[in-house]
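User: tokens in, sequence out, please.
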């Protein structure tokens, strides 16, 4: 069974509580929160205080994607701020196992995020310590980008890598996913579908989530 995780980066931050309520009404159970520092990626977004505020207004699962340098310094703090899931980039953390363990010890689900041009082999030693892998199907940093089609084969290979090891690790995918391609990525092996523009692009988050669920259900 798949889950839709609306990316709040594409929401209207002047009415964030209403946007969160809308996607929940549409059937979303996970909120994807992009944390960017302007160093690991060329953009700056939100941090711990906003995550704390989001936690106060919703019971939905909060999924924080840390696109930051030195994620080991902050990963567990995001769990303590209210995040249920926290992913850190394999490219940014030389002590990945330690960071993933810290996330789990703080009570969160630990995830490894991987960029489009990073080889899957970089995940091999970290997989046993991860609850999920966040596969980027765009280069991180900005919303509204087009899906990189080579991500489909990479997703297929990642699914096989996980299954061959007998691991329960879930696959989350993020970038350029909408009603036109959601069924394909689910068929290929994704469990959690992050979508920003695909959910909020028409200004109606509830309708956006329902449209994605319908598009996925029709073909799966």
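Assistant: Sequence out:
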């Amino acid at each position: 069974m798949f889950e839709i995780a609306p990316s709040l980066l594409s929401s209207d931050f002047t009415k964030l509580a209403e946007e969160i309520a809308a996607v929940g009404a549409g059937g979303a159970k996970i909120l994807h929160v992009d944390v960017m520092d302007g160093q690991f990626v060329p953009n700056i977004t939100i941090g711990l205080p906003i995550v704390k505020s989001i936690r106060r207004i919703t019971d939905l699962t909060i999924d924080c994607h840390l696109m930051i340098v030195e994620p080991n310094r902050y990963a567990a703090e995001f769990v303590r701020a209210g995040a249920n899931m926290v992913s850190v980039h394999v490219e940014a953390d030389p002590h990945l196992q330690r960071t993933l363990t810290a996330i789990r010890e703080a009570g969160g689900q630990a995830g490894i995020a991987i960029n489009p041009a990073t080889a899957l082999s970089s995940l091999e030693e970290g997989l046993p310590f991860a609850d999920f892998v966040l596969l980027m199907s765009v280069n991180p940093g900005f919303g509204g980008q087009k899906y990189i089609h080579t991500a489909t084969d990479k997703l297929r290979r990642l699914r096989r890598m996980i299954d061959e090891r007998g691991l329960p690790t879930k696959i989350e995918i993020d970038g350029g996913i909408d009603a036109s391609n959601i069924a394909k990525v689910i068929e290929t092996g994704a469990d959690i579908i992050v979508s920003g523009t695909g959910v909020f692009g028409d200004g109606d988050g509830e309708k956006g989530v329902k449209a994605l669920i319908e598009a996925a259900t029709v073909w799966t």
